[in-house]
Design goal:
Blueprint lengths: L2 H9 L3 H17 L4 H16 L12 H5 L2 H28 L10 H24 L4 H25 L2
Helix pairs in contact: 1-2, 5-6, 5-7, 6-7
Length: 163
């Protein structure tokens, strides 16, 4: 492989990985007679390495994949998406049964469960932010953005349909 291309492909990997394996990997790529398929494989592997770093990787620079694996990161996402799925099922059932959005005199079971899920995730989100923002600000902000998006997606039907 062309030395410049081998160097460029090696630069796709995270800094910690390059410090440990970069010189050997670049030499391997230069020695090998490979084509387009091998370059695509290296690009894919670099992407995976950035998302899910190899075991024993450098925790001084945690990646998004390593941060989102923690329960305090993915549990609020799951709670918001569960609340949204419950709303979707209740709305679909009401529309199929009655032809329009059903409004109950009391809020109903789905509304109470939705409120519990939405309120219950707030302490988890605060814990996650306090724990991870000092350690890994960039991936933590990405996860917090995903959590905020999931919360807003769950709140949108309630707001726009007046539930």
């Amino acid at each position: 492989m062309n030395p410049r291309l081998a160097r460029l492909l090696t630069l796709l990997y995270p800094r910690g990985w390059r410090e440990r394996y970069g010189a050997e990997f670049e030499a391997l790529l230069q020695d090998e007679k490979s084509g387009f398929g091998a370059a695509l494989n290296v690009i894919w592997s670099a992407l995976i390495e950035r998302i899910f770093p190899t075991q024993g990787g450098n925790m001084n620079h945690p990646s998004l994949g390593s941060v989102i694996r923690h329960p305090s990161a993915f549990v609020p996402l799951a709670m918001s998406l569960t609340a949204l799925a419950m709303l979707a099922c209740a709305l679909t059932y009401g529309i199929v049964q009655h032809g329009s959005v059903v409004r109950e005199a009391d809020e109903g079971t789905v509304a109470h469960l939705w409120q519990i899920l939405m309120a219950g995730q707030m302490p988890v989100i605060v814990f996650f932010a306090i724990k991870w923002l000092p350690r890994a600000p960039r991936p933590t902000l990405c996860v917090l953005g995903m959590q905020a998006g999931a919360v807003l997606a769950s709140m949108a039907p309630v707001y726009f349909l007046g539930l």
